[in-house]
């Protein structure tokens, strides 16, 4: 098969491309230029898409003897990922940009362009497995639980999975680095990048403030309704946050306070004690199914963070909405986050959380 290997310039995508070549495929390396003004060098492990990364990817492609191209998707990345991220925070929600990038860039824009050019699919360095099931190809958790990235791939549909290849899903990360070193790849010891890739310094609040400006509002006690402080914008807060609230414990009975809700229309951030954070009912929209969609009530596992724990749950699907009842309360779940549903190791699908509550 003719396959595009998405090469970020890191160790994982380098080994993934090499394995696809070893498997006998006709491989072409592609680096995605996602920044409108790419830096020359990385500033930290969070950054990506620098000229250094593109150069690292090119050197791996040269060593493998495969063609290499840079595809400029910066404008679409800005619109579909970065701007979506900014507007979601402005609306008081907490998005996951990695899911949006996988959905709209790597397995929409990239895959669509690859297919239009006559390729059969796209290979990436994600840690996940695609296995044949009774209804077609299925997305499963990776063998390495510490590196499993099936959560951020839970937005892929069956058609995209049919064209997706994840050669690292059955390997441990240590083995991948060792293989890279044995192949002579200079990126063998390169640090892993961390999300959020377009906030290289890790200061999400600062990034959002530069985009949105200051939008002052009130910090309000969620129980009494009393105003207990002020803030510079709801975009600087997310449910479960404890630090950076600007509150003195002495004014609030000495107990630490957390963000328990964000009311963007009224520019209010609701704060309360830890016992108010736990929820066990989630409602979600923007449903994405990795295979045949479930209907009615089904018993599944639910995960609400990329590196979070799977929780036993039941899910009821009706039309374009899913209601997930968690087996226990989970703290800090915010609208805008994604809930990914599992059946064993298989990813059933995902939804964007629109509301949370507690069962009576």
Automatic annotation (TrEMBL):
Domain tRNA-specific 2-thiouridylase MnmA-like C-terminal: 282-353
Positions of the tRNA-specific 2-thiouridylase MnmA-like central domain: 206-272
Superkingdom of origin organism: Bacteria
Catalysis: reaction(s): S-sulfanyl-L-cysteinyl-[protein] + uridine(34) in tRNA + AH2 + ATP = 2-thiouridine(34) in tRNA + L-cysteinyl-[protein] + A + AMP + diphosphate + H(+)
Residues of the site described as Interaction with tRNA: 126, 337
Gene3D superfamilies (UniProt xref): Adenine nucleotide alpha hydrolases-like domains, HUPs, Translation factors
Residues annotated to bind ATP: 6-13, 32, 125
GO molecular function: ATP binding; tRNA binding; tRNA-uridine 2-sulfurtransferase activity
Active site, per annotation: 101 (nucleophile), 197 (cysteine persulfide intermediate)
Enzyme class: transferase
Localization annotation: Cytoplasm
Any one Gene Ontology cellular component term annotated for this protein: cytoplasm
SUPFAM superfamilies in UniProt: Adenine nucleotide alpha hydrolases-like
Stretch list, region Interaction with tRNA: 147-149
Enzyme Commission numbers on file: 2.8.1.13
CDD domains: MnmA_TRMU-like
InterPro entries in the cross-refs: MnmA-like (IPR004506), MnmA-like_C (IPR046885), MnmA-like_central (IPR046884), MnmA-like_central_sf (IPR023382), Rossmann-like_a/b/a_fold (IPR014729)
Gene Ontology annotations of biological process type: tRNA wobble position uridine thiolation
HAMAP family: tRNA_thiouridyl_MnmA
Family, similarity comment: Belongs to the MnmA/TRMU family.
PANTHER family: MITOCHONDRIAL TRNA-SPECIFIC 2-THIOURIDYLASE 1 (PTHR11933:SF5), TRNA 5-METHYLAMINOMETHYL-2-THIOURIDYLATE -METHYLTRANSFERASE (PTHR11933)
Functional description taken from the UniProt entry: Catalyzes the 2-thiolation of uridine at the wobble position (U34) of tRNA, leading to the formation of s(2)U34.
NCBIfam families in alphabetical order: PRK00143.1, trmU
Protein name (database record): tRNA-specific 2-thiouridylase MnmA
Gene: mnmA
């Amino acid at each position: 098969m003719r396959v595009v290997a998405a090469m970020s310039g890191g160790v994982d995508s380098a080994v993934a491309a090499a394995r696809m070549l070893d498997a006998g495929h006709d491989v072409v390396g592609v680096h995605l230029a996602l920044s409108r003004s790419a830096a020359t060098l990385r500033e930290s492990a969070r950054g990506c898409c620098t000229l250094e990364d593109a150069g690292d990817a090119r050197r791996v492609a040269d060593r493998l003897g495969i063609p290499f191209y840079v595809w400029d998707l910066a404008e679409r990345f800005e619109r579909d990922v970065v701007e979506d991220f900014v507007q979601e925070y402005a609306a008081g929600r907490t998005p996951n940009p990695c899911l949006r990038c996988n959905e709209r860039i790597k397995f929409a824009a990239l895959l669509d362009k690859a297919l239009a050019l006559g390729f059969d699919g796209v290979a990436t360095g994600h840690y996940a497995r695609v296995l044949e099931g009774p209804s077609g190809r299925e997305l499963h958790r990776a063998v390495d639980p510490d590196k499993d990235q099936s959560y951020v791939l839970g937005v892929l549909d069956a058609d995209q999975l049919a064209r997706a290849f994840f050669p690292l899903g059955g390997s441990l990360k240590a083995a991948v680095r060792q293989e890279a070193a044995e192949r002579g790849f200079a990126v063998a010891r390169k640090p892993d990048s961390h999300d959020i890739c377009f906030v290289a310094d890790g200061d999400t609040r600062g990034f959002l403030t530069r985009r949105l400006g200051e939008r002052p509002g009130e910090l309000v006690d969620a129980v009494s309704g009393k105003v207990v402080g002020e803030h510079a914008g709801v975009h600087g807060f997310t449910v479960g946050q404890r630090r950076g609230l600007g509150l003195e414990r002495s004014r609030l009975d000495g107990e630490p306070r957390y963000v328990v809700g964000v009311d963007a229309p009224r520019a209010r951030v609701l704060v309360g004690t830890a016992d108010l954070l736990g929820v066990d009912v989630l409602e979600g929209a923007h449903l994405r199914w990795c295979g045949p969609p479930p209907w009615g009530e089904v018993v599944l596992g639910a995960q609400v963070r990329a590196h979070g724990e799977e929780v036993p749950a039941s899910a009821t699907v009706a039309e374009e909405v899913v209601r997930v009842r968690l087996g226990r309360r989970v703290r800090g779940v915010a609208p805008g986050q994604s809930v990914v549903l599992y059946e064993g190791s298989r990813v059933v699908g995902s939804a964007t959380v629109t509301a949370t509550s507690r069962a009576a």
